[in-house]
Amino acid sequence: MACNLSLAADQLKRAVRVDDMDAQERITPAVNWSIAGDGALAVGIDRAPNTRSDWKARSSDVWVRLTSDKPFVNITKGQADGSDWRDPLWSPDGQRLVMQSTRGRQRSLWLWDRSTGELSALTDRAFADTRPYYEWLDSRRVICTVLPPGLQADEFFPDSEAIARAKAGWAQFRTGQAPSVSVLDPAAEAESVPPKSDRLFDARFLRQMISIDVVTHTMKLIADTYRAGDLGFFAPTLSPDGRFIALMVYGPPVGGTYSDMLGTNQLVIYHTDGGVVQFNSSLLSDALSTSALRWSVDSSRVAFFAYGKSRAEGAKLVVANAVQAVAQALNLGDTAVTLMRDRQWDYARVEWTETGELVYFAGEGERALEKFARRDWWLIRKSAAPLKLTGALKTVPEFERLSSAGPLAGIAEGSLWWLDAKHRAVRKISLDGTVLAPTIVWPQSAMLAAYTTNVDRSYIIHREQRPARSVVVVENTNDTAAARRYYSVDIETGQVTPLKPPRPELVMIRLDQTTQTVYWADEMAAQYLGSAASLWITAASPAERGGSEQPVIALNAWQAAIQTTPGIEIDYTSLDGQPARGWIQLPIDYQPGRKYPLITYVYPGQRGVGGQSAFHYEELAPAAGFAVLRPQMRFISGRLYAMTSRDVYFEVSNGVLPAIDRAVSLGIADPQRLFVEGHSMGGFATISLLEQSGRFKAGLASAGEYNWSSSWGTFSAGGRYGEDVSSLDIGFAGENIQQRPATQTPWSDSSLYQRNSPITYVERVRAPVLLVHGDQDATVPITQTEELFAALLRLEKRVSFVRYWGEGHIIENPANIRDLWLRRLAWFDEFGDMARDGAGHLIFEGDQVKSRGGGAALKPADYGYFDLFQPGGAKAQPDRGR
User: Fold this and answer.
1) Which residues contact 71 (CB under 8 A, 6 or more apart)?
2) CA atoms of 317 and 304, how far apart (whole Å)
3) What is the CB-side half-sphere exposure of residue 690 using CA atoms within 13 A?
4) Which is more confidently placed, 290 or 442?
5) Label partner for 481 (CA 20 to 30 A): which of 117, 127, 240, 638?
6) By CB neighbour count within 10 A (0-12 exposed, 13-18 middle, 19+ buried), where does 718 fall?
7) Distances from the Cα of 335 to the Cα of 305, 374, 384, 493, 618, angstroms
8) Chain-centroid distance, C-alpha 79
9) Does 290 have pLDDT greater than 60?
10) Is the confidence at residue 210, as pLDDT, over 80?
11) pLDDT tens by residue, 668-723
12) Backbone phi, then psi, for 400, in 5-degree steps?
């Protein structure tokens, strides 16, 4: 009887709806929270949007739990006035919180006092965007970057200044009284600073650095108006003791060519008490990005790479002594520094050891600059050539400083390694066979933190969580998602301690060594850029374990009334003979024995595991009756690829086609109803797969690169109406197919670009294709999709091109998201020959979906009457746990 009642209750649950996506509350465990020394927890929780009219506005509140026996309290209550509050950061003494907020009609820095419970604005100066830099210098002073007086940023539409320039030019054209001209001339281009005014300003560039006394609310100017280097991508870098702050400032061009106009940065070091450190040296000119900037443990010196006065000699490793105001270029012997291949962005690497010596990552000899030449870690010696440390290793670890003063650590050859600076040796830590394929999941790596600064303030959390002791947490990536195992490893002693989550499906996100506490989150936090709906806490010590069997934060309680879709992991062998793992999200009301239409979602570099929602695919597509396959794809999208070949086009199908075969062999996928979809590099992969296989009934490709040659020279959306050469992004997309610094251009190796471009093989596309692109895409210009559409049209292929005005690289407007889902389902249903009932459910005939029998396919608007698109959804107040 109990089973029947349970089954009946489950049947009363409804399927997910499109509108539910706008009702979710979230936390972002990697960035939007902070832990005080006594364990007090501050968390930013994203509110569900109030209305569709403010869809672009971010809305979050900061919640605080001071002790484990007290509940979370909303200290900001931003819903009352629609203000946004996020990124809390405790003072070193744990008595105050700073955070950013939009209360008062601009985004600025606010303070919450723990003793009084009062909120107050720290400054009337605005932040440039939602990714400002601020950090505690001590328990009384905060340092932060702000806009110059009188300027306010348009964080919703940061390209408004470029659009305004274009509109002004169009108006001049109509009057005929003034020239509607815009000139890009590298030889004549000079550094220009827009005038200060009260107008709305595109503030991607200008900054000031200030410090604020949070007791008196007095402000001190540290760095006057400057233009941030690398378009403000990289954060200022504070010395460990807070005495100095290093800034990358956009400097004058080094020449008249395009390459000389890009990446020109000057390193400037300021005293945080005020005043600049005056170096009488050109070595601080034309520095490489700050991802390679590292302060010594004693805070006296900073190491970085720079060209200095001339780029002809290549990059130098420079050490600037901030105490003595002296800079020195170090002897690199026969090695040459190159831009990095690991991770998604290009970094030159240098690190300080705990003994005060420098190690760096470089190639050796004449081949050092070649793309696939080996790189090793080298130790700088005072009176001798650099010493190679990793020459005996088959694979070189990605060493990083993961503690404030302990050894460097990294993963290679399935093992954890550390650099024994005292004996100048690289050593392996034995994990006793318990961890077969370890990945360091905590502390967050500086490399990943540098990347995510462009997304959120990870560098603050990274500095806060960096422990004094050399302890890391590794995950056994050979385990299934439902049986992950975590181990705390003391690098210096080799002690390994298992960490057990409260539930198997949770992921470990942080270890607080002060209170010996482990924080866990639900599956959505599997990647640092993901979000979560629950937060759990357990004790780190095995003797005290038992922990909390209930989450301390539990959002979206209304989802308990929604049917969940089961998912399964599949193991298979890729075409290149390598073991691979995929994930299949099964449809609502899945019944074994039935064969379902399958959408294969592709993105190069993705892991084939669940919980990584791609534009709500794992929720909405199964609710519409589809199974969704996420295969493992081994090479990394972006500029760098973990491959032995630069011909990325021919690697796309490696992990995909065998995964589809596996889904069919399991009896889940209908081999006659296979579809493929991807976004960005996934769009590139989608068209490549449609050319390499005739198995798919239809495909959907959005915002993809299809012709590397034409993409190489296409201006970005912002560059087209920009006023300087550096905004053009020439070659950014085209060089995705090779490592930077690019050695091959479309005219020096045209075959490289041609053979890797899907446009070259467009005649081989046999399935109907739905193309999607936003006209303001600054990452992949819409001209790429225009070119592919023109080719398919000329070849009389079945193709439809959906353009969303005003959208960028990702479709964000709720109305457009809804429209795209209508069109997606109509497209796949039409070419999959599928019949639905009046509620939108697939009709089965035997073990397969029933054919329409020659009947007309539904139009996109028809799907709007189905349950998936009906209004309603979450009404109950989300539960934030205890």
Assistant:
1) 65, 880, 882
2) 6
3) 32
4) 442
5) 638
6) buried
7) 14, 11, 13, 33, 48
8) 28
9) no
10) yes
11) 999 999 999 999 989 999 999 999 999 999 999 999 999 988 888 887 666 677 66
12) -150, 155
What residues pair up with 244 in beta bridges, in sequence order? 271
238-267 core/surface letters (b: 16 or more CB in 10 A; e: else): bbeebbbbbbbbbbebbeeeeeebbbbbbb
**Residues 471 and 511: beta-carbon distance below 8 Å:** yes
| Angle, alpha carbons 316-317-318 (nearest 5°) | 105
pLDDT digits (tens, 9 = 90+) for 3-55: 333 333 445 688 888 888 777 788 876 668 899 989 999 999 988 765 555 67
Q: By C-alpha distance, which of 108, 84, 111, 109 is closest to 95?
A: 111
608 φ, ψ (degrees, to nearest 5): -85, 65
Cβ neighbours of residue 189 closer than 8 Å, sequence gap 6 or more: 253, 261, 724, 725
Contact (Cβ atoms closer than 8 angstroms) between residue 690 and residue 656: no
- Pick from 90-94, 460-464, 594-598, 838-842: least confident: 460-464
Contacts (Cβ under 8 Å, ≥6 apart) of 441: 473, 474, 475, 486, 507, 508, 509
Q: In the β-sheet with 134-136, what is the strand arrangement from edge to edge?
A: 134-136, 141-146, 206-213, 218-227
Please give the Cα distance from 144 to 207 (Å, whole number).
Answer: 10
Short-list 93, 94, 103, 92, CA closest to 61? 103
Backbone angles phi, psi at 246, to 5 degrees: -100, 130
Query: Is residue 882's pLDDT more than 70?
Result: no
Return the H-helix or E-strand segment holding 26. Answer: strand 26-27
Distance of alpha carbon 43 from alpha carbon 25, whole angstroms? 13
Supply the DSSP string of 233-256, one letter for each residue.
-SPPEE-TTSSEEEEEEE---SSS
Our CA angle for 441, 443, 445, nearest 5°, is 85
Q: Which residues contact 582 (CB under 8 A, 6 or more apart)?
A: 569, 570, 572, 608, 629, 630, 631, 632, 655, 659, 662, 663
> How do strand 507-512 and strand 517-521 relate by DSSP bridges?
antiparallel
Rounded average pLDDT over 381-397: 91
| Mean pLDDT taken over the chain | 81
* Residue 17 CB partners (closer than 8 Å, separation 6+): 623, 867, 868, 869, 870, 871, 872, 873
**Residues 431, 473 contacting (CB under 8 angstroms):** no
Distance of CA 582 to the CA centre of its chain: 22
Q: Cα separation of 559 and 563, whole Å?
A: 8
- Please, which residues bridge with residue 46 across strands? 26, 60
Give the DSSP letter string of 823-876: HHHHHHHHHHT--B-TTSPBPEETTEEPP-TTPPPPPGGGGGGSGGG-S----S
Residue 277, pLDDT above cutoff 90: yes
> In the structure, how many helices (H) and strands (E) does the chain have?
13, 48
Counting beta carbons within 10 angstroms of the beta carbon of residue 8, is it exposed (0 to 12), middle (13 to 18) or buried (19 or more)? Answer: exposed
Confidence of residue 448 (pLDDT cuts 50, 70, 90): low
d(CA 588, CA 567): 11
Pairing of strands 218-227, 206-213: antiparallel
Token match 């470029």: residue? 162
DSSP bridge pairs for 44:
62
Compute the distance between CA of residue 343 and CA of residue 444 in angstroms, rounded to an integer. 13
User: What is d(CA 44, CA 61) in angstroms, rounded to the nearest whole number?
Assistant: 6
